[in-house]
Every structure is written in C-alpha cells, then in structure tokens.
UniProtKB/TrEMBL annotation:
InterPro entries: Acyl_CoA_acyltransferase (IPR016181), GNAT_dom (IPR000182). This is N-acetyltransferase domain-containing protein. It comes from Candidatus Lokiarchaeum ossiferum. Residues 8-166 form the N-acetyltransferase domain. PANTHER family: GNAT-FAMILY ACETYLTRANSFERASE, SPERMIDINE N(1)-ACETYLTRANSFERASE. Pfam families: Acetyltransf_1.
Amino acid sequence: MVKQKQKLNFRPATQEDLNFICEVELLPENSVFVGHDSLEKHRSCLSDPDCRYWIAEIQEVKQMTPNAAKNKVGFGILKGNTNPYKCMELYRIALNAHSRGYGSQFLHFLQNFTFQECRFHRLWLDVLTTNARAIHVYEKHGFIREGCLRECSKAHSGKFESLYIYAILSHEYIDLKF
C-alpha cells in the first residue's frame, strides 16, 4: 500500500509563529545546516517590507486540531521583496518533518510565489556544500549551481565551511514540468 503524501497549506507567518520558527531552526537535524537568528531579529525582520515569512501546515481534511502548532511542518523566509532588480533570496527554509515530500511542496510554493505572484526574475540561495539532501531538492526544482564561496562560513565547531550559490530564473521556472 502506497501512503499518499499529505498536502500542505501555506500562509504568511505572524508574531505568534516566531517561537515555532526559532524551535525549528534549533532542531538537531536542522542546526547543522540551517542558520538561526534570535527571536528579536526574527521579530524585526517579520515587520520589514523586504522580507516575507511563510509557514507550511498540513492541510487537514477534517477539522483542525485544537493545537494548531501540531499542523505546522516548517517555515520559509524570502528576502529581497523590495529589490528593484527583481532578485529574491530564499534566505531560509526549514522543516520539523523530513523525508515526507514537504520540502519539495514548500519549495514549489516559494518558487510559484516569487515568479507568478511577485513577477520576479531570479530566485537565489546559498547552501552548505555538505547539505546533500537540500542540494538534491534544489536541483530537482531547476536550480542551477552558479558557484562556490569557499570557506566563507564558520560553523559552531569553529571549522570553516563552503557554500554553493544556486539560482533559477523566471523563464527556467516556467519551462519546468511539475
């Protein structure tokens, strides 16, 4: 029997979501690959017109559970909303549930939002060269590796790490077959 993927709903994040965002950033399976910001920094960025915070939630067929936090599976942050050159950065995407297809659904939503709703030309991101799972998802969604920033980031361990730069252009996104 094949288990059907649960569909996700996406909504703008609110101040009430910030504790969830901080918790997801600090999960052991995320903290190795995902940066984290203080609650105060998130609060400030959430009110910045250049940033877009999104929450991904499981789409319930039945009534929502009394504790809506149980339905949240991740968050995404886009930066560059006011960029005059129409370049958006996928600043962060993180989930509290992995290997269920949620990352692909969320990334597809963020791409659609960037290119269809905002009419931007370019969506770019950086990713640790050691984050094979994320790299696989980005490449599956049409992102092209544009370069490598060698040993530009310092891990909690003190070790320097390298980042790949990936991007996708609006016409490349339109040509994808989902």
